[in-house]
Amino acid sequence: MATVILTFRPNFDFHMTNPRGMVGSWLRDRGKLATAQAKAEVGVKTGRLRTSIKMTSERTARGPKIEIGSKKNYALVHHEGARPHVIRARKGKALKFSSRGQIVYRKRVMHPGHGPNKYLIRQFRYFK
Questions:
Q1: Where are the domains positioned within the chain?
Q2: pTM (2 decimals)?
Q3: 40-62: b or e for each residue (b if 16 or more CB lie within 10 Å)?
Q4: pLDDT of residue 4
Q5: Cβ contact 119:38 at 8 Å
């Protein structure tokens, strides 16, 4: 027995490849959850990194695509961690900071480094 499957191509294309179709909507809904959770899990000092986390959605040749991330230059360092390193004064003659209640000036300081905060990777659970 032969089987013939007919699809209405324009409707199929819309649902499978358009960001507003069924697949695109599913991706966008999961992306919104993942973005909100990443903002909740990212470390906060000033809040600039958290507010910079955005989700973009677009149509590619392979179908709908979303991207979640930040364009801040320190976002990758926060995500992946940093080894101990030296920080040197560049424009000014010294670095100014507070230590034990006193203002201190130094030409260079040793940053102790920090571990990674995988605030984006942990969100893959929303795409299962």
A1: 9-82+114-127
A2: 0.71
A3: eebeeeeeebbeebebebeeeee
A4: 66
A5: yes
